Amino acid sequence: MSHTTVAAYAAPAPKAPLERTTITRRELGEHDILIDIKYAGICHSDIHSARGEWGEGGHFPLVPGHEIAGVVSAVGSSVTRHAVGDRVGVGCFVDSCRHCENCAAGLEQYCTGEGGLVGTYGATGRDGEPTQGGYSTHLVVDEHYALRIPEGLALDEAAPLLCAGITLYSPLARWQAGPGKKVAVVGLGGLGHMGVKIAHAMGAEVTVLSQSLRKKDDGLRLGADHYHATSDPATFEALAGTFDLIVNTVSADLDLNAYLGLLKTDGTLVQLGAPEQPLPIAPFALITQRRSFAGSMIGGIAETQEMLDFCAAHGLGADIEVIRADQINEAYERVLASDVRYRFVIDTATI
Asked: Does 178 lie in the same domain as 64?
């Protein structure tokens, strides 16, 4: 099989600064499309992966990036879903087994079949080669795993929807955020700001629970009805038993029992962030009001397309700061310092 060489930014080793390099992309198979990447979002999980913080192993050099927006520039001989010139996106995975119960149900993100889910980067593809992500100029991907980006969405603002957008849309849809529902979003970062926009557009009454009131004006502008500081103990007294649904976007070690206390009877707290340490939960925090503690991870291909169409219909792009590729390392430090409103997006023309 022949390969094409493309420019990219990669972490040469865990914790090493990212640097410009070249990588190979596979030759176009009959069901593959070639994407000219225009923009790639920077997700917090890119930083965890580039720094080797999610366990040992991983393929280095590593090209992160799973919030990818671009234009189709070539298609394989049997491609039917996309055509040259189409605006497309790729999210957190580029393949799955396609045969297990979850894949058959459109829940590819929970693939349980042989080989399992193939991540956009840091995984091993079906060809046995390491997958490399969107901090690059081009990507070859099976047509089934590329999404159509509707005309109403700018490509730079659409890129973060492929991870941050679907990570929030999926639980908000699954637990039926909508009119008459009180929803709280914990954390107003890259994920949280999309949660506020989407929950508001779904018609829910939205509250932001953030460490401080520093971003209160932003939260209200994005669609929140209420904004409370979790550093103030009075918040947990005032809001006890208030919410139908809480989505926790932060990866910090929070006192989950305090947050469970904010749920109504039959309310659900959905964990989206992935802290490094286990989070202790007191059984009575669940038992006494039949509350649920749940988890959720991105969405399947059909639901991700549904999310993109929903965001286009409601004019919801991510709030972004576009950067050059040579600013990636600086952007990583700024993400860790919460100094971004609310997603960095790399202009891949600068690679």
From this structure: no
Residues of the domain holding 65: 3-163+299-350
Q: What is the pTM of this model?
A: 0.96
C-alpha angle 332-335-339 in degrees, rounded to nearest 5: 125
Measured at the CA of 266, the angle between CA 265 and CA 269, to 5 degrees, comes to: 105
Q: What is the pLDDT of residue 1?
A: 43
The Cα 170–Cα 172 span in angstroms is: 6
Dihedral angle, C-alpha 35, 273, 124, 330, nearest 10 °:
60
Same-domain pairing of 29 and 92: yes
pLDDT digits (tens, 9 = 90+) for 142-201: 999 999 999 999 999 999 999 999 999 999 999 999 999 999 999 999 999 999 999 999
pLDDT single digits (tens) 314-325: 999 999 999 999
Residue type, 303: E
Closest CA to 89 of 36, 129, 53: 36
Contacts of 271 (CB under 8 A, 6+ apart): 248, 279, 293, 294, 295, 296
- Residue count of the chain, please give it: 351
Residues 36 and 131 occupy one common structural domain: yes
